[in-house]
Design a protein that fits this description.
- The chain is mainly alpha-helical and 178 residues long.
- It is built from three helices and two strands; from the N terminus they run H-E-E-H-H.
- Helix content is 84%, strand content 4%.
- A two-stranded antiparallel sheet has the order 1-2.
- A hairpin with a 4-residue loop joins strand 1 and strand 2.
- The longest helix is centred in the middle third of the chain and has 126 residues.
- The protein is elongated and about 110 Å long.
- It starts with a helix and ends with a helix.
């Protein structure tokens, strides 16, 4: 009855007597008084017209479904049967007949021989220079270790000069012995 009161007062005064917000569950009341006679008249009116209005909307829904579905299906058939083969299959046929042979010829005549040449030369260079690299490593490894020891010694002396204590003296002895 409160909903009908709202409708009656809104249609007669264009100002609702109350508002209901379902999410907040709050009521807003105005100064309009409640009239029982108005609500019973509106209830009778809504009851008598509800089936008629519902049947109109049922028929409208069926008509709209027919009017919208049939053109959409016709467009879908046209696109799937005519446009799709032109847009998809024709470029595939062109690429199979023109572009793939060009790529194959380019790969077999230019890229593949260069790749084989680079692989063979890099393998040849690795096998050629491997003994020299081993000799270089054997000769210069003691020099590298010597420089490494001298840098460790400088670091330890720096720490001792900073006054870090007896602990670093032990570390210095162990580093020199290694």
């Amino acid at each position: 009855t409160k909903d009908t009161e709202l409708l009656i007062n809104f249609f007669e005064t264009h100002r609702p007597s109350y508002l209901f917000e379902p999410l907040r569950k709050e009521y807003y009341w105005t100064t309009e008084s409640f009239n029982e006679d108005k609500t019973t008249r509106l209830d009778k009116l809504l009851h008598s017209t509800s089936y008629f209005v519902q049947s109109i909307f049922w028929y409208l829904r069926i008509l709209l479904a027919i009017c919208i579905t049939i053109p959409i299906e016709i467009i879908h058939i046209i696109l799937a049967g005519l446009i799709k083969p032109i847009l998809i299959r024709v470029p595939i046929i062109i690429s199979d007949t023109l572009i793939k042979p060009l790529y194959s010829g380019l790969f077999n005549s230019f890229i593949l021989p260069i790749g084989i040449l680079l692989w063979n030369t890099s393998d040849l260079f690795a096998k050629t220079f491997e003994p020299f690299i081993r000799l270089f490593t054997l000769l210069f490894e003691p020099c590298i270790n010597c420089f490494r020891l001298s840098s460790l010694k400088k670091i330890n002396e720096q720490q001792l000069d900073n006054g870090d204590g007896y602990h670093h003296m032990e570390q210095k002895k162990s580093t020199l012995c290694v």
